[in-house]
Each structure stands twice: as structure tokens, then as C-alpha cells.
Design brief:
Structural class: alpha/beta
Number of strands: 9
Shape: globular
CATH class: Alpha Beta
Helix content: 25-40%
CATH architecture: 3-Layer(aba) Sandwich
Number of helices: 6
Radius of gyration: 18 Å
CATH superfamily: Nucleoside phosphorylase domain
Largest sheet: 5 strands, mixed, barrel
Number of domains: 1
CATH topology: Rossmann fold
């Protein structure tokens, strides 16, 4: 087996194992749940749970509050595959290890990805507890999962990132939020490697660049999804104001406290979006 085919073979092996462990189901929507947002997976009916470590070549999640398992079952009448927790670069994972589960979803036939996270609000018109649909992103991680020879064996390495966040899915999310009475902002997300929170000087710079929210995930997942032609919807919970804004000094405790408070709205929002996809 040539070196260029190792990643492709690993993905096929991982997808085959996961497909068997979920009983041959055919999920159509993939959902990645960020910090404090994992309880949505508890609403899945007829659920099959598969820990990440049962999947060949899949890394374990070590981030606080990230359970690190797949949950497959029915949500709002659709078969979904949920990642209850994600993989981050700051855990020591390579870009391709972060992207790996997204490519596995694609191998299973999933064409739509909903990725979620907790983020700091840079835009001063936002409030803690607001949700924000991503209209675009700035990848400031310094990493790209498509770099290297192997991803080119999955799909062509040069592809457009225009409308990386699907306009129709964004419009659907806005419509659902309005109907459900949930405040949903729309803005540009900036992704960093982490794990340290940003400095006030960095936040001032990001604001001048046009970023509205900031966190330590999402970008590599979305690049991987677009690489293979998946539609993407990104939703952040503004769990804190970014460092220095209104004197803010973010903490992990604040992130999880706000996420706990907003869980009912988050679950309702995502469930109703899934229902209408």
C-alpha cells in the first residue's frame, strides 16, 4: 500500500467499523457538539452510543466536558450521527486527526454537517447567551487538514471556500430561530489553536479584521467538510465576552455556566433545524 493511500484506507476501516457498531444505520446529518452543548445527544431516540476509542485510528477527546463518543439515532424524524464532544488541536491532535471524524461522516454518506461551539463575543453589540450563526470564518490556527499528499487522495486539494457555511442552511436557521423566539446573531467566526484564551490586544486586532466571535475549534472541521463537498451550518453560543471587552477575563467555568443556562434554547434550535432540513 502506497503512503498516499494510508489515510484513505484508515478512513474506510474506521467508517466500516462505525457503520457496523451503529447497526448498519444510514445517518443523513452529522452534528458536532461543542463545550457545554453535549446534552442535546440525550434527546436522540433509539440511540446507539459508540465511544471514540472503539473506532480504529480515531483519537480520544481529552477536553473538559467533552464526553468523546458518537451517538446515532433519531432526532426530529431524521437519522443523525452526533459527536458528543470533539477533537481539538490544543489536545495535541494533528489537523488531519481533528478532521478525521468529519471525513468518516462523509464515508458513511452524510452530506450535511452542523458544527457547534461555545465562543467569545468580539462584537460589542452581542450579549452573553446569544447564539450566532457563522456566515464565514477566519482560520487563524495556522493549520489546514488538507495540507500534505494524503488528503488529495480523498478529494482534489484545491477547492473554493466561498459560502463555506451554506446560505440556505443559514437562512433556515434564522427562520427557525425567529419562529422559536431565540435570539440568533450572524457573524464572522475566528478560530485559534488555543488552549490559552486570547489577550486583549489580540481581540482588538481580530475586531479590526472583521471577526465577531472567537474560539478554539470549528475551522479545521469545516475545511475538511468542504473538501469533500458537505454542506455546513455553524452555530456558536456566545458564552462570554472576549478578553478585554467590558473588562472581561474569560474562564472555563463561565463557559459551562452559560452553556448550562442556554441548553434548552440550544436543543430546541438545533432540533427544529434538523426537522426542517
Amino acid at each position: 500500500m502506497s503512503e498516499e493511500n494510508v489515510l484513505k484506507e484508515n478512513l474506510h476501516e474506521a467508517a466500516s467499523r462505525l457503520h457496523a457498531l451503529i447497526g448498519g444505520r444510514k445517518p443523513e446529518i452529522g452534528i458536532i457538539l461543542g463545550s457545554g452543548l453535549g446534552p442535546l445527544a440525550e434527546q436522540v431516540e433509539d440511540a446507539v452510543v459508540v465511544p471514540f476509542e472503539q473506532i480504529p485510528h480515531m483519537k480520544k477527546s481529552t477536553a473538559t466536558g467533552h464526553v468523546g463518543q458518537f451517538v446515532c439515532g433519531m432526532l426530529a424524524g431524521k437519522c443523525v450521527l452526533i459527536m458528543q464532544g470533539r477533537l481539538h488541536g490544543y489536545e495535541g491532535n494533528t489537523p488531519q486527526e481533528v478532521a478525521f471524524p468529519v471525513w468518516v461522516m462523509h464515508e458513511l454518506g452524510i452530506g450535511t454537517l452542523i458544527t457547534t461551539n461555545a465562543a467569545g463575543a468580539i462584537n460589542e453589540s452581542y450579549s452573553v447567551g446569544d447564539f450566532c450563526v457563522m456566515v464565514d470564518h477566519i482560520n487563524f490556527t495556522g493549520r489546514n487538514p488538507i495540507a500534505g499528499a494524503e488528503p488529495d487522495g480523498i478529494a482534489f486539494r484545491f477547492f473554493s471556500m466561498k459560502d463555506a457555511y451554506d446560505p440556505q442552511l443559514r437562512a433556515l436557521a434564522q427562520s427557525v430561530a425567529e419562529r422559536e423566539g431565540i435570539k440568533l446573531q450572524a457573524g464572522v467566526y475566528l478560530g485559534l489553536l488555543g488552549p490559552s484564551f486570547e489577550t486583549p490586544a489580540e481581540i482588538r486586532m481580530f475586531s479590526r479584521w472583521g471577526a465577531d466571535t472567537v474560539a478554539m475549534s470549528v475551522c479545521e472541521e469545516v475545511i475538511a467538510a468542504r473538501h469533500v463537498g458537505m454542506r455546513v451550518l455553524g452555530i456558536s453560543l456566545c458564552s462570554n465576552m472576549a478578553c478585554g471587552i467590558e473588562g472581561a477575563s474569560p474562564s472555563d467555568e463561565e463557559v459551562f455556566e452559560v452553556a448550562k443556562r442556554k441548553q434548552p434554547d440550544f436543543c430546541r434550535l438545533v432540533t427544529e433545524i434538523v426537522r426542517e432540513i
